[in-house]
Amino acid sequence: MPLFNLFARCLPDGIDIYFENVGGKMLDVVLLNMRLHGHIPVCGMISQYNLEEQEGAHNLFCLITKRVRMEGFLVSDYFPMYPKYRDMVLPLIREGKITYVEDIAEGLENAPANKVNRGIENVGKTQRHRVRDLERQRERERGGVGMAEVSNKQVILRDYVMGGFPKESDFEFKTSKIRLNVAQGSKSVVLKNLYLSCDPYMRNRMTNSTGSYVAPFTPGSPIIGRGVAKVIDSGHPNYKKGDLVWGMTRWEEYSLITEPETLYKIEDTDVPLSYYTGILGMPSLTAYAGFYEVGSPKEGEYVFVSAASGAVGQLVGQFAKLKNCYVVGSAGSKEKVDLLKDKFGFDEAFNYKEEHDLDKALKRCLPDGIDIYFENVGGKMLDVVLLNMRLHGRIPVCGMISQYNLEEQEGAHNLFCLITKRVRMEGFLVSDYFPMYPKYRNMVLPLIREGKITYVEDIAEGLENAPAALIGLFSGRNIGKQVVLVARD
Ligand SMILES: NC(=O)c1ccc[n+]([C@@H]2O[C@H](COP(=O)([O-])OP(=O)(O)OC[C@H]3O[C@@H](n4cnc5c(N)ncnc54)[C@H](OP(=O)(O)O)[C@@H]3O)[C@@H](O)[C@H]2O)c1
Q: Which residue's CA lies nearest to atom 4 of ligand 1?
């Protein structure tokens, strides 16, 4: 029976704790079956010990979607606990509450065979309905009478893009009509979209993958994404005409939002409005939560950030500098590397596309190793980072962009280093940290105003350039946070 089916039978509700002893294919399948906030103490990976070449670990993206913590450990760190353990276990053995099976080979002459054979002979719902409901509700609202209609340019996803890199031809433009008033009695708002945010997770929404942590887009409908907008009309008590907001909207000039409760009102307008797609929006909260909450940084630690010049990375680097860490970043061009060092204050940076040996590049920039690796890319970079982690290092797993467009994921190698270096690798999703947003905003706004933190944006002008801007994230075309300007006010 395939391993996956076995888990469905034995642990139909999933796994909270997987005590990892074997690695390989078992780990691959377990990752698919982990429950939210599950833990994987990494004890050993015996299936890999005798292989000439390790099998790669697949499905590590589940660490992010399920916020799973994977932490290696070595028993040698716990020997001081031995007396406590012994006092706990001895009565249990005596009372028969715990039992133990041994396989005893007799005689030193049988010791090698026993070791060689070890491990072989010894015994011992998708949200689509909800999207459709919302569409229907919008349709009903569009039917309101006596409201002036205006034309509304939209960016539409033609069809799902299941594998490979998305192309501009996967999108089309449509001009529809929209009424700029909300129907009487409705709690909806009508928005005029000003800035739209291009984010890597949107690639996932372009696929029809059930069970994903985000619902797929609806082909034939406008792209859904975060943005900054002005309220044109409102039936909701929290919003009035003229308010500025940021949050979930659609890739079109005007949007009718039937559930405006998730929108954030913008009170501080002395900073560029586009910042609410980045340094005052979702990517910055990602950097903040991932670095401080998951990374648990300490003063003076060695920090490495991949995709370091992007929306999230540039902030992680600057937060790490504020914490007096030594910070190194990787990015995909000389221009980006210069930006990291000259504008964001990284101590060192390298262009990963021009380094023949990534391991050497890391050893050159971080000869004493890495305490915190802020993981944005996955793939080969993760493989070499694992070799360079320091004892008790942490890897906040934010994203794995190098894998998003592959037909088949590359496997992650060198996970055994989690054990030898007692490294904690923990996935997280920014959506869990939205309640922290006001705290974050109050922390970062004075830093922006005082020029202690800076932010680089790459602004594409006009909805017609939005598809190219979005797909450009996957070739590194963007320099800084990718934004689309729809209208200035
Ligand atoms: N966990 C969460 O809640 C959460 C929230 C937001 C974002 N994220 C993740 O955070 C990461 C960064 O997002 P972002 O918004 O800051 O994007 P971004 O860095 O502004 O843009 C993406 C960048 O990724 C790099 N890249 C693209 N393909 C690559 C590849 N094959 N190998 C290595 N690098 C590649 C490119 O930069 P180079 O020129 O340097 O290659 C590109 O500019 C993504 O993985 C994203 O999915 C996670």
A: 398
Neighbour tally for 248: CB within 10 Å: 15
- Beta partners for residue 350, in sequence order: 330
pTM for the full predicted model: 0.89
User: Which of the residue ranges 128-132, 178-182, 222-226 would you say has the lowest mean pLDDT?
Assistant: 128-132
Give the strand pairing for 389-397 and 189-197. unpaired
Give pLDDT tens digits for 103-151.
Answer: 898 888 888 886 554 444 555 533 444 444 555 555 555 544 445 689 9
Rounded CA-CA distance 484/195 in Å is: 6
Pairing state of beta strands 389-397 and 370-374?
parallel
Atom of ligand 1 nearest to the CA of 314: 16
> What are 415's two structure tokens?
């996970």
Contact assessment for residue 49 and residue 419, using Cβ atoms and an 8 Å cutoff: no
Pocket test for ligand 1, best of 202, 226, 336, 376 (most atoms within 8 A of CB): 376
Looking up tokens 């984010």 gives: 199
Average pLDDT over every residue of 307-319: 98
Query: Mutate which of 373, 395, 401 to test ligand 1's pocket (most atoms within 8 Å of Cβ)?
Result: 401
pLDDT tens digit sequence for 45-98: 999 999 988 899 999 999 999 999 999 999 989 998 999 999 999 999 999 999
d(CA 133, CA 100): 57
Q: What is the CA radius of gyration of the chain?
A: 26
**What is the Cα–Cα distance from 83 to 162, expressed in whole angstroms?**
56
Distance 46 CA to ligand 1 centre (A): 33
Residue 332 Cα: closest atom of ligand 1: 39
Angle at 224 between CA 218 and CA 227, to 5 degrees: 175
Residue of the CA atom closest to atom 2 of ligand 1: 429
Question: Is the predicted pLDDT of residue 472 greater than 80, yes or no?
Answer: yes
CB of 66 closer than 8 Å to CB of 38: yes
Look at residue 415 in the predicted model and tell me its pLDDT. 97
Q: Which residues line ligand 1 (CB under 6 A)?
A: 64, 199-201, 283, 286, 307, 309-313, 331-333, 336, 376-377, 398-402, 428-430, 473-474, 476, 478, 481-482
Structure tokens at 317: 């680097």
- Closest ligand 1 atom to residue 427 Cα is 1
